[in-house]
Design the sequence.
């Protein structure tokens, strides 16, 4: 076993594509130098700068117009549309950062646009409602648009927030920047062009995962999966310690661990482990069609009920069960469907969680508080288990 791991690591280190990836990642980049490639506040700063027609980029209202075209085309906007935008004078517009904690606020004489930007972090409790209440009170006579900007364009977790907020993904930002660099390039100074190109590189590599370095990384992982998994599994950090405690606690509470890895403890009840079909494809290693998924990271913890991509009949049967749950919401995700999520704001790096018993108690409470729903899923799945395709 040890010899196999050593051979896998040796093959990885001798693969020239590893050197190629290393060189690619060391390409000078303004955002890399500042170490802000995935820092939410820095992305908001850049976007606010691009949206402000009075800033030094010399683009006037170009970026802002393209962004507002997408916003105004939403069915949630009744007071304007993408066709009426050209008749609106945008030069007097104001763009604010962190006004009353709002990521980006666009203020026109007749309308305001609220933008909540989420990259790695999750929503805080009632955060979106708080922002809409603040803006409705501060701008009672203005038309309003509320935007939830995320990597994948997911909807807000709260149903009322999802009704009011327009979900936009970073693919739109990438597309607008592509248009600017191809159509308006001659109006940009060399310095500004480099700055925008650097940001596009960050979007492609770290946010959209569409850069050549990502392709190289995927190829390396495909060819040296065992070695890379071994390296990842043995990276010494706080989460590695947390993982062991979480997995042990899940087992102690009577559940069966299924496909797990760092950051995810996935499990089923003992009865479900015998009945859930293993018809998932290019998803989890165990090919499970459904799992309870406990996601954990340095500053967060959540429990989700997740259906994997695979046999469509089984996905449909499982989806109907998830929809029937008392706290079910519209599914998020396209491949992996999540109908229920219970997220907790936790910081595992604080002194409190140096005590392993505190982590164990946290996990026990999370499982206990969701046991009714977990048991309900088991009951409903067992009722229809004979209808699953094998």
Sequence:
């Amino acid at each position: 076993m040890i010899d196999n791991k050593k051979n896998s690591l040796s093959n990885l280190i001798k693969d020239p594509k590893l050197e190629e990836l290393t060189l690619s990642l060391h390409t000078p980049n303004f955002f890399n130098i500042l170490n802000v490639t995935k820092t939410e506040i820095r992305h908001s700063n850049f976007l606010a700068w691009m949206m402000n027609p009075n800033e030094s980029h010399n683009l006037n209202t170009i970026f802002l117009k393209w962004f507002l075209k997408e916003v105004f085309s939403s069915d949630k906007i009744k007071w304007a549309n993408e066709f009426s935008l050209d008749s609106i004078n945008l030069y007097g517009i104001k763009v604010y950062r962190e006004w009353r904690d709002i990521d980006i606020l666009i203020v026109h004489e007749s309308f305001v646009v609220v933008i909540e930007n989420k990259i790695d972090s999750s929503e805080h409790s009632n955060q979106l409602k708080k922002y809409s209440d603040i803006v409705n009170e501060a701008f009672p006579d203005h038309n309003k648009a509320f935007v939830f900007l995320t990597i994948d364009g997911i909807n807000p977790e709260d149903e009322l927030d999802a009704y009011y907020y327009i979900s936009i993904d970073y693919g739109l930002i990438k597309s607008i920047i592509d248009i600017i660099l191809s159509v308006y390039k001659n109006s940009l100074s060399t310095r500004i062009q480099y700055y925008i190109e650097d940001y596009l590189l960050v979007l492609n590599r770290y946010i959209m995962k569409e850069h050549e370095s990502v392709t190289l990384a995927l190829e390396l992982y495909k060819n040296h999966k065992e070695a890379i998994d071994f390296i990842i599994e043995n990276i010494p950090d706080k989460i590695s310690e947390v993982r062991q405690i979480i997995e042990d606690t899940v087992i102690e509470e009577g559940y069966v661990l299924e496909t797990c890895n760092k950051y995810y403890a996935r499990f089923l009840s003992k009865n479900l482990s015998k009945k859930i079909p293993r018809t998932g494809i290019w998803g989890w290693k165990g090919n499970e069609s459904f799992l309870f998924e406990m996601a954990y990271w340095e500053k967060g913890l959540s429990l989700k009920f997740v259906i994997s991509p695979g046999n469509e009949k089984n996905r449909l049967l499982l989806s109907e069960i998830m929809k029937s749950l008392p706290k079910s919401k519209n599914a998020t995700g396209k491949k992996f469907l999540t109908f229920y999520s219970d997220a907790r704001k936790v910081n595992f790096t604080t002194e409190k969680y140096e005590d392993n018993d505190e982590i164990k108690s946290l996990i026990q409470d999370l499982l206990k508080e969701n046991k009714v729903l977990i048991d309900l899923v088991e009951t409903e799945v067992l009722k229809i288990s004979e209808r699953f395709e094998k």
